[in-house]
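We read letters as residues; the integers encode the fold. Take this protein.
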Amino acid sequence: MKRITFALLSVVLVLGCGDQAAPPTASGGGDADGAKYTIAVIPKGTTHDFWLTVKAGAEDAARALNAEIYWKGPDKETEVVKQLNIIEDFITMEVDAMVMAACDESAMVDVVKRAKDAGIPVVTIDSGVKSEDPVSFVATDNVAGARAAGQELARLIGGTGEVGLIPFVKGAATSEMREQGFKDAIAGFPNIKLVATLYSDSDAAKGMNVTQDMITANPNLAGIFAANEGGAIGAAQALRADGKAGEIKLVAFDASDEEIAALKEGVIQALVVQNPYKMGYEGVKAAVDHLEGRPVEKRIDTGVTVVTMDNFDEPEIQKVLYPLGKD
């Protein structure tokens, strides 16, 4: 396994590039002398609950598999250059493997190839790249998930009316796939018309602004699909502020505490819930399996669940909503 120099490792720890894993709780990764594999986990952002849950899954996998995690990502999902620089730094450090969610599916292609050429396998999670170089892609089937969101929104508005779409970052694979899936779903309802597509940049404040613009420009708006946490929180804030909560139906991806509260309040009518904990865990596991010569599936689907107040209290739904348990 590769060795990170003491000087570089010190820089990583001082700058907060990663959280060292706790002592291993089970046998697993590492080379013959018992040293740990070093695995960089690079999210698209670090502020949303979604990414904190990914981190928890990655850390649990590291403990189980005798690996050591270095966690570092850009603050915002739009900071493509910052993510590129982070990946370059980890290549220089010669980590054993990388697990990453790409801010941009095209912009990350070259740096993933450089990692591979340097002998560092890459597993992508959540958002992939336009390349066959990654060992595996561990993620939600975003097209299918957004299709389910579109079908649920169509049900909520009775199969007729004007709807709006709030993707997050143009060019990000996940955002593009959710946009596609939603459009595919509503195409099956001839009496539903998509009247606006506005991006939130994964920022709640911008999500609120674009929702207000959407409502102002389309006074007959019946429903909105917000494709991630930032957009959903912003859309919910706008609906409250404009007195449209419950009148304009809102379906959203993800399940942060704030989104769950909005569901209970009746501002959000349905959540399409991913399994970010599983993404983090399976991403690290795939990296360790590859390093140890075990076969790894090229595509690992972590699944989605549509949550409404009708099924909210079911035990299996509670496990999906609170993968780390309630505080």
Summary: The chain has two domains: 6-139+275-296, 142-273+311-316.
